[in-house]
Amino acid sequence: MFRIAIVIISLLVGAGAVRADDRIGVVASFSILGDFVRNVGGDRVAVTTLVGPTGDVHVYTPSPRDAKRVADARLVVVNGLGLEGWLPRLVQSSGGKATIVTATKGVKTRKLGSEADPHGWQSVTNAKVYVSNIRDALVAADPAGAAAYRANADAYLDKLDALDREVRDAAAKIPAAARKVISSHDAFGYFADSYDIAFIAPQGVSTESEVSARDVARIITQIRASKIPAVFLENISDPRLIQRIAAETGARIGGTLYSDSLTAENGDAPTYIDMVRHNIRTLTSALAN
Amino acid sequence: MAAQLQFNDLTLGYDRHPAVHHLSGEIAAGALLAVVGPNGAGKSTLFRGIVGILKPLAGSIGRGGVDIRDIAYLPQSADIDRSFPISVFDFVGTGLWRTSGSFGGVGKAARPKIANALAAVGLSGFENRNIGTLSGGQTQRMLFARVLLQDARVIVLDEPFNAVDARTTADLVTLIGRWHDEGRTVIAALHDMELVRSSFPETLLLARTAVAWGRTDEVLTTANQAEARRMCEAFDDGAAACTAAASPARAA
Amino acid sequence: MLLYQALIAPFSDFEFMRRALAGIVALSLGGAPIGVFLMLRRMSLVGDAMAHAILPGAAIGFLLSGLNLFAMTFGGLIAGFAVAILAGVVSRVTELKEDASLAAFYLVSLALGVTIVSMKGTNIDLLHVLFGNILAMDDQTLLVIAFNATLTLFVLAVIYRPLVIECVDPLFLRTVSRAGAPAHLAFMALVVINLVNGFHALGTLLAVGLMILPAGIAKFWARDITGMMLVAVGSAMLSGYFGLVLSFFTRVPSGPAIILIAALIYIVSLLFGRAGGVVRKVFTGRHLEA
């Protein structure tokens, strides 16, 4: 009788406390996913991100440290849709027992060339699906925290709704004729579809593929013909090409748009919401006049 | 006569093994000296030392005030890149290096000189051929022509008649005789004893050290040559460091 | 007229095409002669080696000034010089030949570079950032490669004679002159400058490609060095021109398009070249009287 009481008491004590080493280890493939996981998981999760700010998630080379992180994690959250070509082999070779969560499950995808466009997070509606998937995965991995996860997710989803409205309102203010931009990274397809701004890019999806003279000539002709007002730099690929196109067409260089990763803490886009806000503000200020 | 080259207890070699061992002596200015000896006797090594390509292991070489770069050298097997796209004319023309300098070109005045040098070695008509199209003997003659153009006070020839036919050999020996008449110092390593006896007044019989050195008929005796042959060709891998004192200077 | 549309219009209509052509001309004038010498000295692969060797210099530039192209290029130049000079010195002073010496140093350099980059913790492909694109020639870049070409031609003219002798009979040069080593080092310096600035302006493929392929083409048409250099420069410019036209009308990226045209010319030269072309060797015609 006494022994059973001890066991029951220790179980209750254990269940009540959430000590630091009880946190769920989650590895996110890149910074945007990391941000989502942190918002849903709160202090029940310990998140590490593989590709940090200024890294390039398309062409990342994992280090042995990354393999260790993956091996120790409970969940590995990835984008999927071909974004992280380097990831399956990393997970396999690290030999860990983590569950892989594909954040884009159920997202309505669009095509980019002949393949699916992986940049789903660019539309806030899709981001909400990401968050739901992450919430469900966390609940499945750690049922004890289900209530916390659901509460966090709901709060965050509300914020995302507000963000979505903000972006739509701002986009609506741009005159229809001026709703087109050139960006050097073909990452804004979902954003373009959701908010009705045309993004035209001189390069393909990945930062690796090279541009032909015909592509550049087409872009210049298009800018001239459609009178596109602004050209945007992307923080990863070659800015000189953008500058050349801008110089030759008279389009304005509109600042930096962030597509594939967040910035550092003191930068323009340390969280996802900050990133989207920064992007829409930069767009409107370049296009509005 | 003044000494043009002095060997002071000279030791030259590779990897600490001596190929020329404690050689002392002088070569007078204007001498016409044949250097003979068995294979591996150190003839080529000595010549490399004279033109400054090989630094002595011990001892020194005095050059009587002549700049190393004014010594013309015909190596035994010229390591030239025969696939290089250069004509015989231009190649031989580099012999005028000392007068035209590193960056000067081959001027109008030089062209007849080059043509004459080619004629002297029997290579007229070869001016525009690429060097890679020449036979071994023709290459040798081309190198000889370059030496001609160098117009040097001291001329060192390492087995210059190796691949050359008899008629050309005779022509080249005549050239050497002319150099001697002009007062130049000529040193040649040779294997053909007939040629040495007929054309070279002085001989150095070398077998790591000087076996005999002086007038050709006094040097090329059977006894001397037998002694030279006794030299061991291979380097001794187990040899200790040499502590020998300088050997006595040659009796003139 | 159709020919005008195809060959002239792209350049008259678009400034970036004119600039690209200017870049090609400058690169051909500087790089192609260097390429001829590299080929003759059997150092054709040095371009690729150098592309990796400059990494630690670029990495240090990155550490000190972030993604500043000027700092990284400058660092790359320093690293390139260091590797080239060390390799040259080692091959002159020891028994090791130039290619082995260069291989050793560039590998060390590359390893150093990777270490430095990973110490900083980011994972940017630095070299990718460093390498430019011929369609993005801004004023500064054009100036740099034009300056390159001028410097190269001038220095080459000055070191021409000792360089040639050093290639064909290095022992002779050693016995008559002290110009051999300085000429060689100057040449290596030119190689580094042309390569690094070429990478910066046009990317590795073009910078190395327009050095080496034209040299190969030249070998099948000329029997003397001057002729080779002229053919090399000419075929580099031709490849650039038609490559740009090709890239203008198709999806082929500009760099590869130019190299493909150069390769085409190379194959034609290989088969039909006057100096050693395969077809001429097989069908020599009747032999001569004398």
Automatic annotation (TrEMBL), chain C:
GO terms for cellular component: ATP-binding cassette (ABC) transporter complex. Keywords: Membrane, Transmembrane, Transmembrane helix, Transport. It is found in: Cell membrane; Membrane. One of its GO terms (biological process) is transmembrane transport. The chain crosses the membrane at residues 20-38, 45-64, 70-90, 102-121, 141-159, 229-249, 255-273. The keyword Membrane applies. Its main location: membrane. It is a multi-pass membrane protein. The keyword ATP-binding does not apply. Pfam families: ABC-3 (PF00950). It comes from the Bacteria. Belongs to the ABC-3 integral membrane protein family. This is Zinc/manganese transport system permease protein. It comes from Rhodopseudomonas pseudopalustris. The lineage of its organism: Bacteria, Pseudomonadati, Pseudomonadota, Alphaproteobacteria, Hyphomicrobiales.
